[in-house]
UniProtKB/TrEMBL annotation:
GO terms for molecular function: S-adenosylmethionine-dependent methyltransferase activity. Keywords: Membrane, Transmembrane, Transmembrane helix. CDD domains: AdoMet_MTases. This is MET7A protein. It holds the Pfam family Methyltransf_11. The chain crosses the membrane at residues 6-27. It comes from Dryoscopus gambensis. Residues 75-172 form the Methyltransferase type domain. It comes from the Eukaryota. The lineage of its organism: Eukaryota, Metazoa, Chordata, Craniata, Vertebrata. The gene is Mettl7a.
Length: 244
């Protein structure tokens, strides 16, 4: 406990300019508009390379969840720059949502690259509040590296289940808390407050598999995997899908 607090204080000292900007109300808007989209772009390039095989595997059975009309209506929560588009099947109708509308540049670049999809609309919305999406109106919901930073995981999963049609599927790939007895978990605890501030509310120690198990999915497949990210406390991940 003491070690964690001591190291947290050292880290906060190193990041003191950011804490000061946050105190003055300058950091959050700057982070949302400039820093986070920029850094996320860079991190995503690395993360996409490392997780490509896992994503190909994960999204392989997406076509199985086409609706009765033969169309696949997919809603993505926290689309960001659209790094998942390449994995969606041709003809898929995509609704993009993100709480942060500042990814437009890289998003339109990815849309141009992936013209095998139909882009329905872009909604500025939080995962906990998808009221612009009618209940039971989509066949699949996708969420990657988003549940770490929503305000409420359980409300987000409730919304996921609401917008899915019966028999529809929720796909996820998220970084999670490490094994409690590990060094990795120790460092996650040390980095937690500063990381959360710097990376727009991202929480390092969420045990998201528990939230998923508590949600009311009729079938749930979860796999614990490791995505090696150099110098980053986000190696342990979970990947899988749940059926409504």
């Amino acid at each position: 406990g003491v070690n964690v607090l001591l190291l947290r204080a050292c880290l906060a000292l190193l990041a003191s300019p950011i804490y000061l900007l946050s105190f003055l109300g300058i950091w959050e808007p700057f982070c949302r508009k400039v820093f986070f989209p920029f850094v996320l772009d860079k991190i995503c390039v690395v993360h996409d390379k490392k997780s490509k095989k896992h994503k190909q595997e994960l999204f392989r059975n997406l076509p199985d969840f086409r609706g009765p009309s033969g169309e696949l209506r997919l809603l993505e929560i926290g689309t960001g720059a659209g790094s998942n588009f390449q994995f969606y099947p041709p003809g898929c109708k995509v609704t993009c949502t993100d709480i942060n509308p500042n990814f437009q540049e890289s998003l339109s670049k990815n849309m141009k690259k992936n013209q095998h999809l139909h882009y329905e609309r872009f909604l500025v919305a939080a995962g906990e509040d998808l009221r612009q999406v009618p209940s039971g109106s989509v066949d699949a919901v996708v969420c990657t590296l988003v549940l770490c930073s929503v305000h409420s995981v359980s409300s987000t999963l409730r919304e996921v289940l609401r917008v899915l049609r019966p028999g529809g599927a929720f796909y996820f790939l998220e970084h999670v808390a490490a094994e409690h007895s590990s060094w990795r978990y120790f460092w996650q605890q040390v980095c937690f407050p500063t990381w959360k501030l710097v990376f727009a509310g991202c929480c390092l120690t969420r045990e998201l598999w528990k939230n998923l198990e508590e949600a009311k999915f009729s079938e749930l497949k979860i796999q614990h995997i490791s995505v090696a990210m150099p110098w980053m406390p986000i190696e342990p991940h979970i990947v899988g899908y749940g059926v409504k």
